[in-house]
Structure formats: structure tokens, C-alpha cells
Write a structure and sequence with these properties.
Layout lengths: L1 E5 L2 E7 L5 H10 L1 H8 L5 H9 L10 E7 L5 E8 L7 E9 L8 H15 L4 E7 L3 H9 L3 E10 L2 E11 L2
Parallel strand pairs: 5-6
Antiparallel strand pairs: 1-2, 2-3, 3-4, 4-5, 6-8, 7-8
């Protein structure tokens, strides 16, 4: 577990394994708004398990890093999922940066993004990539504000819902 202090607030980032699915489930259960938008249904245990275990083609468990963000009382308040060198060497993809609704809009997401960025730079990344649902206007604005640029739109289906996903990239090195 890694601890951080930001604006007099302590939080911890704990790397997750399949044994830690309960932490992922707790965040997912508090983020039903996202899952309803993405797949048209509330979050399930399978969603939480998938965040921990699903891998892009050609990647291994060693390439994927899933972390729970815990507050001062060890309450799970967010999830981070990053895959190194995907889809190409030097580009790391942020598969997920999810905060429970009470934490959104507080500036905390920017803090976590900076942690991810610094960590990716230390790991040899030269750019970061993310896919954002077009209808998730707040997230599109968040990533754009941080300097991410849309490079393409892709069609994807999650659950019963079809989406346009904005593929966004930021050069960091």
C-alpha cells in the first residue's frame, strides 16, 4: 500500500489482486450511475472482477495495475486501472479512473491523475491514452482540461448499450 498526503488529506493506494474483489465491488456499487450509463444496468460482482482480471489482447497480468483508492478510514473511494505499453510500447492506457460520486468535482481526480502520470513517466511511458464514453460529458471535459486530445472515435458495445468512445491521448515525455 502506498500512502499520500494531499491538502491535509491522507489517502492510500492499494494494489489489488483477485483476492481483493470486495474493494472493487464496494466502489462499483457506489458508482451505479456510471454502470447505468455504460451498460444500462447496475454494477455487478462480475464488473468488479473484470476490472481486476480483464486484459487487452497480448498483455499479461504483469502489465496491468489495478489499485483501490482508500480514504483516511480505509473506505474505498476509487479505482484505478492502468496497462503499461498498450496499445504500443511507451503508451500506457488508463482503463479506469473512477471515484465515488461524493469525491467527484473536488479536484481529487486531478491529484490521482498526477500520481498516474508520474508513475507512468517513471515506468518509461511517453504518452497516456484513455477511452471515454461520448455521452459522459463530465469525463470528456475532465480529460480535455488535463490536456488529452481526441485522436479517434470508436464504436463499442457494453452490456446492451452501444457507444461512441473518444480515444484520447496526452504526450507526457
Amino acid at each position: 500500500m502506498v500512502s499520500y498526503l494531499n491538502n491535509k488529506r491522507n489517502y492510500h493506494v492499494k494494489f489489488l489482486t483477485e483476492k481483493d474483489v470486495a474493494l472493487a465491488e464496494a466502489v462499483c456499487a457506489n458508482c451505479d450511475d456510471y454502470f447505468l450509463m455504460e451498460q444500462g444496468a447496475p454494477a455487478t460482482s462480475k464488473n468488479a472482477q473484470g476490472i481486476i482480471t480483464d486484459l487487452p489482447k497480448g498483455k499479461t497480468k504483469r502489465d496491468k495495475f489495478v489499485m483501490a483508492v482508500l480514504d483516511e478510514a480505509d473506505k474505498p473511494i476509487g479505482l484505478i486501472d492502468v496497462v503499461a505499453d498498450f496499445p504500443k510500447k511507451g503508451q500506457w492506457i488508463i482503463g479506469l479512473l473512477m471515484l465515488i460520486p461524493e469525491e467527484r468535482g473536488s479536484g481529487f481526480g486531478k491529484v490521482l491523475y498526477q500520481v498516474i502520470k508520474d508513475w507512468a513517466l517513471d515506468g518509461g511511458a511517453d504518452s497516456l491514452r484513455i477511452g471515454v464514453l461520448e455521452e459522459n460529458k463530465e469525463a470528456v471535459g475532465f480529460w480535455s482540461h488535463l490536456g488529452f486530445k481526441k485522436i479517434e472515435g470508436q464504436q463499442h458495445t457494453y452490456g446492451e448499450k452501444e457507444h461512441t468512445v473518444h480515444v484520447m491521448v496526452q504526450e507526457i515525455a
